[in-house]
Amino acid sequence: MSLRTRIAALFLVLALSSAFCPLSARGQKEEDPENALAEATEEEAAQKTVSRRDGSSSIWDNPPESHRDLWRWCNSQPSLIEDFDILLEPYPLRPGRNFNLHLRGNLKEELPDLQLRTLIVLSRFIRISHTRNLCAEQPGLCPLQPGYQELTITYAIPPVISGPITVDATMVVGSKEIACARMGPLQIGSSGFGL
Prior knowledge:
Number of domains: 1
CATH architecture: Sandwich
Order of helices and strands: HHEEEEEHEEE
Structural class: alpha+beta
InterPro entries: ML_dom (IPR003172)
Protein name: Phosphatidylglycerol/phosphatidylinositol transfer protein, putative
Strand content: 25-35%
Helix content: 10-25%
CATH class: Mainly Beta
Number of strands: 8
Region (Disordered): 27-61
Distance between the termini: 26 Å
Mean pLDDT: 73
Strand order of the largest sheet: 1-8-7-4-5
Organism: Neospora caninum (strain Liverpool)
Keywords: Signal
Radius of gyration: 18 Å
Shape: globular
CATH topology: Immunoglobulin-like
């Protein structure tokens, strides 16, 4: 392996070490406390589980047909969730941009806490594992109540990424896995930065 190849591989590993890093609820810009609090409240409301009985609009109102081919259950369909679906926005994924993972389904029972454990596999060799405590990130989210729920989780994608990419997303309550969805292979679009 040449020195140039080693340096490129090291750069890729460093770039991917932050792959799919979670974003904070307020982003990364500095703001005055009043605006930050108002925006945080709006974002919490937008990212909180939402019942759509009131007729408000949702990403799920007109989902693209192709999104159904992006995921399948890792093992078998879980017993605690019915009518579950996943939508990635934007898709194809774009290096250097954020993407939203939209989840929806009908919970059969209350969930006191919720973690999302992801295993991202890049080019079949690079594995990145990450766990997010969704209840800690989004105060007021938990406990999740039985019934129809929608949840949006934002991730950042590093500027340098190659495919194919697969993602196993496992929902965990306490130490119990309640569902696992496998996404991929996922398409990577151009960054739009002219790179």
